[in-house]
Specification:
It is found in: Cytoplasm. The chain is 34% helix and 18% strand. It is of the alpha/beta class. It is globular. The protein binds pyridoxal-5'-phosphate. The site of pyridoxal-5'-phosphate has 12 residues, from α3.
């Protein structure tokens, strides 16, 4: 079978070496005679897996010592509720920067728990979508926190500069950005990410939270969403998603062996550039996002003649290029090219797009 490349936005491709390793030790992990998913989360064997995964993530992201790393349930959307429950007191409001559908969803969920100030920062300039400079955002200096989503997975907009919030805690949804490029964790109060894009399988959520933000959760916060409870119990207050945690650990090892975040980020830039450049040089395909805000991970593009969409998707699938259909809210196509997507996959996609254009123009 020739290589199949899966461009799904999430759950996404996993690195092949990771799956090969997981498969090889699936039935008998580390000579225990058991699968790792059959081990008690409190056993010393699993604790070693858990500790190593955290240490490797800390190394990969240079996470400072005054941050806790939590391995939670509930996905990105779980954190849409957990963040206000933990960080938004009744006498304050929170600023939510809206750059697309995920940040909007986060704000809408947070409104169930407190006063939310939505700040739309997307503008159209010369027919291109872009994000207003963060120095012009009307932030409230008394806000409990500022929430934003650096990479909008659906819309394909990415903000590379970290906004300056003048001391107001900055909270970021890094579900589709984490580990794709270097970021300075110390600029953030809290980072969260569902695992199924750049970390591992679904079912695991990583939360990186500065210690001084623990301990102020609303009394009605469910215990499994209470950062203090999770931190005090090393993310094992209830049974954590152990197999996803183990697989995330394998992905972290793979990433370290591949040269870390810096090395993968230059490959990511190369992959994205290949695709955007091709689209820009074509009259058959288009992308309407300003070049400085184009996502490195999720590349939306449209066929100028949208009546060819189905043919494009069918032929792509036959060529081994899967899951290119755009999100139902924006239409068109979307190629998600997370860390696990090799550059060969993007080259193959571009070649396919060139041939499709030739055959249809
Ligand atoms: C995928 C995604 C989510 C949702 O994650 P779930 O784990 O499905 O809840 C949230 N935010 C962003 C930016 C995402 O890409």
């Amino acid at each position: 079978m020739s290589a199949v490349y899966n461009f799904c936005a999430g759950p996404a491709m996993l690195p092949v070496p990771v799956m090969v390793k997981a498969q090889s030790e699936f039935l008998n992990w580390n000579n225990t005679g058991c699968s790792v998913m059959e081990l008690s989360h409190r056993s010393k064997e699993f604790m070693a897996v858990a500790t190593k995964a955290e240490a490797d993530l800390r190394q990969l992201m240079s996470i400072p010592d005054n941050y806790k790393v939590l391995f939670c349930h509930g996905g990105g959307r779980g954190q849409f509720s957990a963040v206000p429950l933990n960080l938004l007191p009744a006498n304050k409001s929170a600023d939510y920067i809206i750059t697309g559908s995920w940040s909007k969803a986060a704000a809408n969920e947070a409104e169930n728990f407190g006063l939310i100030n939505k700040i739309n920062v997307v503008e159209k300039v010369n027919g291109q979508r872009q994000i207003k400079d963060s120095s012009q955002w009307p932030l409230d200096k008394n806000a409990a926190y500022v929430h934003y989503c650096p990479n909008e997975t659906v819309d394909g907009l990415e903000l590379f500069d970290i906004p300056e919030t003048h001391g107001v805690p900055l909270v970021a949804d890094l579900s589709s950005t984490i580990l794709s490029r270097e970021i300075d964790v110390s600029k953030f109060a809290l980072i969260y990410a569902g695992a199924q894009k750049n970390i591992g399988p679904s079912g695991l959520t990583i939360v990186i939270v500065r210690e001084d933000l623990l301990g102020s959760a609303d009394v009605k916060t469910p215990c499994i969403f209470n950062y203090q409870t999770e931190a005090d119990n090393s993310s094992m207050y209830n049974t954590p998603p152990t197999y996803a945690w183990y697989l995330a650990g394998l992905v972290f090892e793979w990433l370290i062996d591949s040269g870390g975040v810096k090395a993968i980020s230059s490959i990511n830039k190369e992959k994205a550039q290949l695709l955007y450049q091709f689209v820009d040089n074509s009259k058959f395909y288009r992308n309407d996002i300003a070049s400085q805000h184009r996502s490195l991970m999720n590349v939306p593009f449209w066929l100028v003649d949208e009546s060819l969409n189905n043919a494009f998707l069918e032929q792509a699938k036959s060529a081994g290029l899967l899951a290119l259909e755009g999100h139902r809210m924006v239409g068109g196509m979307r190629a998600s090219i997370y860390n696990a997507m090799p550059i060969e996959g993007v080259q193959k996609l571009v070649n396919f797009m060139r041939e499709f254009e030739k055959g249809n123009s």
